[in-house]
Amino acid sequence: MGKYILAVNAGSSSVKVTFYTFESPPQAIADAQVSGITAPPPTLKYQRGPVKIKEELKEKINTPQDAFKYILHRCFNDPELSEVASDRDLAYICHRVVHGGDYHEAVEINDETLHHLEALEDLAPLHNFSALEIVRLCRNELPSVTSVTYFDSAFHQTLPVHVRTYPINQQVAKANGLRKYGFHGISYSFILRSVAQFLGKPQEQTNMIAMHIGSGASMCAIKEGKSIDTSMGLTPLAGLPGATRSGDIDPSLVFHYTSEAGKLSPGSTKEMHISTAEEILNKQSGWKALTGTTDFSKIAVEDFPSEAHKLAFDILVDRILGYIGNYYLKLGGQVDALVFAGGIGEKSALLRRTLVEKCQCLGVAIDAKANDKGPEDKETVKDISQGAGKGPRVLICQTNEQFEMAYHTVQSRV
Ligand SMILES: Nc1ncnc2c1ncn2[C@@H]1O[C@H](COP(=O)(O)OP(=O)(O)O)[C@@H](O)[C@H]1O
Ligand SMILES: CC(=O)OP(=O)(O)O
Ligand SMILES: [Mg+2]
């Protein structure tokens, strides 16, 4: 068995891969990301030790599987990364799978578990398909390496029944698995451990409102180390708007959108049966629909380039604020911290400042300089609160889903 762990985070538009040593805690030896799969040209970001490479790729990369194959080939053949030259150097491959249905924890892939996960694809075709394609590819091309899948939904198995139940016919709900699952749980698990450690509290005594704001955005109310509510639902479409997702809308909107909306999407394939409405609300909405860009750094700027950019920003702020109020009450005001994470939460000082100003009545305030500066590269948690107010601390947490999977892989096997 090899000595290294490969952690894979496959999204619809990017694939992030990190190689780790098998030790506690795991150390990253190389990190590669291909993005722009749906908006060519694809770009590669590759980091190995102090070396950082960014380049546009000429290869045809149309799917996350193509991107994964490209990264694997490139890393295995990099003479400067001789530690991992073939499958013989790998002990485990960890895969982030967004929808894990009723799974409470990670599973090792074998014929039976893969079959279970394939059955779930119907519930989340847009989100699980790419990850499972990569799992299948690893089984075929790297058969000696054990694959382990980690689920975004597992962290939220603690949701109280009245939170996870939709008020619809319960027989239909049970038969079809229609309930709130919640996502970004691998990230929330990383955030909980890191913030509890930072605050010097046991996880079971830590309460927070955590925000994972990236291309996909969600929030989570964590009480005594457990998820008690989260903004995504049956699928990652619910809750906050994202780069291409609408977030919450009145479900009736679908029936009024166009007469085509309910039909099978032209983009649906034999494996992926998705309706036009799902495609529109997941892939053609959010700030892309409002502004034309999926890059929030072009939206969250002091002088908004247009009214549409300002509107996209204001909508996100409004929806986040709504959940902060909601979760503050659900946590009975016992909140240790408001935690900003995800690409946008970690990088947009403007979003943090705007939100915290609107939360003054909760006793929160930020230090403008610390907020503008943001965290250093290796600073997992940064406190940007001002003074020792009575309210919750305001923290930035540089979350890392690949690390979280590698960490648990080592913990559960030593
Ligand atoms: N300085 C910044 N200000 C605002 N948004 C930023 C900044 N830097 C990056 N982002 C945004 O972060 C988002 C990506 O976040 P990330 O969590 O990596 O997303 P995902 O994992 O869902 O692909 C992009 O929309 C990107 O534009
Ligand atoms: C669950 C989800 O929305 O994932 P991502 O943010 O990676 O798109
Ligand atoms: Mg993400």
Polypeptide structure, described:
This protein folds into two domains: 4-151, ATPase, nucleotide binding domain (Nucleotidyltransferase, domain 5), CATH 3.30.420.40; 201-247 and 285-401, Nucleotidyltransferase, domain 5 (2-Layer Sandwich). Helix content is 34%, strand content 20%. It has 14 helices and 14 strands. The chain has helices at residues 64-76, 111-120, 125-141, 161-164, 170-176, 185-199, 253-257, 276-283, 286-291, 307-330, 342-347, 349-358, 368-373, 401-411; strands spanning 4-10, 14-21, 28-35, 43-48, 51-56, 90-97, 107-108, 146-151, 208-213, 217-223, 226-230, 337-341, 381-383, 393-397. An eight-stranded mixed sheet has the order 5-4-3-2-1-6-8-7, with helices on both faces. A six-stranded mixed sheet has the order 11-10-9-12-14-13, sandwiched between helices. Strand 4 (43-48) and strand 5 form a beta hairpin. Helix 10 (307-330) crosses helix 12 (349-358). The longest helix is centred in the last third of the chain and has 24 residues, at 307-330. The model has no long low-confidence stretch (mean pLDDT 94). Acetylphosphate (UVW) binds at residues 11, 98, 152, 183-184, 214-216, 236. Residues 214, 216 line the site of magnesium ion. Substrate binds at residue 96.
